[in-house]
Design brief:
The chain is α+β, with helices and mostly antiparallel strands. The chain contains 15 helices and 35 strands. Strand 8 and strand 9 form a beta hairpin. Helix 3 packs parallel to helix 4, helix 9 packs across helix 14 and helix 10 runs antiparallel to helix 12.
Amino acid sequence: MQDIRNIAVIAHVDHGKTTLVDKMMLAGKLFRDGQDNSGEVLDSNDLERERGITILSKNVSINWKGVKINILDTPGHSDFGGEVERVLNMADGCLLLVDAFEGPMPQTRFVLQKALQIGLKPIVVVNKVDKPNCRPEEVYEMVFDLMCDLSATEDQLDFPVVYGSAKNGWMAEDWTQPTENIDYLLDTILEKIPAPKQLEGTPQLLITSLDYSNYTGRIAVGRVHRGTLRDGQNVTICHRNGSTERTKIKELHTFEGMTHVKTDHVDSGDICAVIGLERFEIGDTICDFENPEPLPPIAIDEPTMSMLFTINDSPFFGKEGKFCTSRHIQERLDKELEKNLALRVKPFEDFTDKWIVSGRGVLHLSVLIETMRREGYELQVGQPQVIYKQIDGQKCEPIEELTINVPQDFSSKMIDMVTRRKGDLLGMESQGERVNIEFEIPSRGIIGLRTNVLTASQGEAIMAHRYKNYQPFKGEIDRRTNGSMIAMETGTAYAYSLDKLQDRGKFFIDPGEDVYAGQVVGEHVHDNDLVINVTKAKQLTNVRASGSDEKARVIPKTVMSLEECLEYIKADELVEVTPKNMRMRKILLDHLERKRSNKE
């Protein structure tokens, strides 16, 4: 029997989790001597590298002193909670990584709570102790208080602490005495994290994630809970809905380093990949052929936010994307449902080309839209809506816990902005020249808040939020107050006309861009919508006068990311997403039609 440790790494966004895993892989000799390929190996897809966040969980294994350590990387954002919940099921312990200056943040709390409920044994790593003004001792106290808050058991509260700097590649017992390497951390893992229990009996494996290979198709990944799985064995798959299906394992792989290695059997406690099964979902159990005994499926929190997805029907339809029809989009959403557990898709009323897609938050859904856009899809999405529930006959809405960290001068502005959106102030704590302010706020209030907070604090604010619970409806919230500027006709925008209209508001287009009638080209300074003609060129005549020939000076356009566009649009607007552009538009493109519908 091989000695194994299964460990999940938990941290807030940007506290150094991926860097630490890279250093562990370096210590486990996964790269050839003298070769350091550790540049964030696990954040392998383009979106993760651009945003610097982990979206999909991945696993690698290293060998340390003859013991195999399976390391599971978990996302830090509560929007990707669906990933977190299933990954933790494979672990026996967790590394809680905390920044030595910031301390535990709201997102850490979310994942840690899930880990403690499952009963994982934590090791606390206080990272970045090489930063100036860090406070490792205080942070240790804060982590202890947090564990007590989350009602950890006595065994969990008796956690070991490791101090160090993952970036500089050292870990030690005492932060004032740096060492040469991270051996102390790896030794602590072997000593403190329990080895998985060896359960004898018929085999059981809960499928917790999917992999895909162009050669072998879908691959089931999970941890063998009990018994031994063998290559070529006949097994039964028990589905979530209670039905069973008999099939055969074609190949078994275990994880070694970054890759799969073929093996003839896997014992209980190890994590493996099963190849050759046809129909299965995450949460199904692979059991004995004769006497199947399924494990309880993974419980996943419900989604809190929904959006309307529809095909692109703008005048520029099909110019930039490869996949534009409703059949393409339907197939792509079905494919996403297989591996994205927290997602729900249902058709909108009786339409065949509109869907209501529900997820954990704006970030969760925008990552899906961004991925589809890069794959060559064209689609349109509506304004994000929160999902209301009726509890005891009362209309309830999701509430989030929001933390804003700003310099003291801006704290009153922040409190004013959040309370206008029906937020309640829970507490304030000053850390040097900055203040940490905690609120409870409806999820509706967070939509579009980030941009305003950054503007009001001159870009200094750090904002984090996580879903808390459902509470009675708090009343109406004022959203964006400014109206839109809408193009009157289709054509090319000219600098001449943009120059003359600049006192009306700010523009989202540059001269020379193609626009169509009904496209939102800017933000009006007043609260009503304004229809403008940006395609009017200068009349070329023979008359020359000093006043008529001045040069057009156009302020550069306001560039908005996908999330900002989704948070910006009003209920009667859509975001058109294509591989090359993102445009905002009115649902009714014709000006007269909009007037008629407003009168009704």
